Request: fold
Amino acid sequence: MGLTRVERWFSDKRKRLGRAFTGLILLGAMTATIQAGTFKLDLQACRVSADNGYHVESVPSVMPPYDDINMYFCNDDAYTQGNLFSWSELDMVPHHIIFSNTTGSDQNFTFKVGGDYKDTVDPDLVGWDYISELTLDENAIRAIAIKDGKIPQDVVDQCRAIGGIATQTIEITANSKEIFRVVEVNGFSDDLTCVAIYNMRLAIGSSGYSGSSLQSRLISVEGDINLGDQTIPLPSVLATSLSKTMAATQAGSRTWTVTKSSSSSSVVFDDTCNDVLPLQQDVNITVTWTKGEVTPEGNVSITTVIQADNAANRDINISVVDTLYSGTTQTNQVGELICPTVTLTAGSGTQLICSHTFTVPDEGFEQYNDVAVATYIDPDANTTYPGYEAPTKTATATAYVQGTSQSSDENATIKDREWISGNGLSYSVATPTNGTLDAPYTAGTVTNGEVNWTSALATGSGSVTFTKTVYAPAATATTGTLSDIASLRTGGGSATNSGIYDISLVANAAVSLTITKTMDPADIPDGETLDFNFTVTNGQGYDENFTISVNETNTSQSLTISGLAPGSYGVSEHAKPG
Reply:
């Protein structure tokens, strides 16, 4: 999913008709939950997909001094109360809140939005770590105003005036368990509908939440009326990875390293229930081996390679500090490398962050270990708050000192082993650019088993690229991994490996639910249209109202709700007034 950056300006002279007209098409969905005589807040979030229009815009804050802030948006039809599919760590997930007041009087209220922050038991489990301020989605407001027969700019001005006097603060609960943005609104006018937008960032560690246990929440705090609580679950979150390898050789021996890289960090099937979307996708994995220099007498050479990927749908900057220790503990530091900051592009596969060879005096240690700490730097300004902690990730590696003589380390053999996990998922491997696929596997055969490859004898640096095709079954929601490890052994018996590299696999499924209302023609007054209201819930945060209209000509009408997560749903019809 590509990310574009758009400068957004709010004036009558610069109309953004593209998104405005999109909003008009969706008006029925956006206003379906609004009923006469009520005050209601509807929480929605963006469903991730290749065509959801995810992009960043520069928009003015509703709070003084009204500076521009970056905000991530989706197309209006991508916002939902239900299935968000699979976002990734460090993604900014766009959220909508639709405010509507038809009570006949102004309303005062306080609510908060947010969710889980730090787990009190597992320090590596972190849910959301940043919530932007709420500002206005002016195009969505204009679209609703047009549908309601109002002057769009007048409604925008009303909403902006209310936003300008609202107060917003960040709240972190005891033990940092939850993070919220608290919003207090006074004087929300009658006969007014506003749409607010805000972003929540998925933290490093959010991929550790199982099922739909990580949720985005809207909680009523206080006010003239009870707004109720709303939740939107995330079925799964893709992880961002950091990996490192190291090799150590004694004097007179040559260092070899082997690493992995990929064209993508994940393979995602947007909707396996959609007959138009393909059920197979390609991904390339490259194994690279490097022949190093001979280690000088009296020294040990330790080569470290640090790699990272970015599963998020936006660019992220990464800065790594790599520290080398002798022995098995982190007490005797023998070297440190501060890697230059690297920009990981959106959705990028594994790429090199930095590589370095430490040459240290041979003090008789049989083993060395290395710790790389990556700090992820958000490219968008103003993403900090009091108590903010920058997201970090740590990778470690160990290496035994190896080698016998220069002559025995002049050549090497490289092997690769790959396998897949995930219910119903399978893959195939095309004929590689060099070496051979080991029997009994035949290139191009679809399998859910193991595939092995062996290189020709390597006398120098080189690489091989595997083109793999991943297959998902139809009408299935599942997750898994395509895993791979490469190993290298020199003629003298020295060995090293790339470490296991996993590509995340996600198959999403969106189902539809159809409601049909049929009336006896005798029960429909001549010339009248009867509206029937229904509520659809699933017990996991989805709670939407819909209306079906019938008349004497069309006595049976159906409504199909698409894009739902698989599961059980309840449909209730509201009693007809009178």
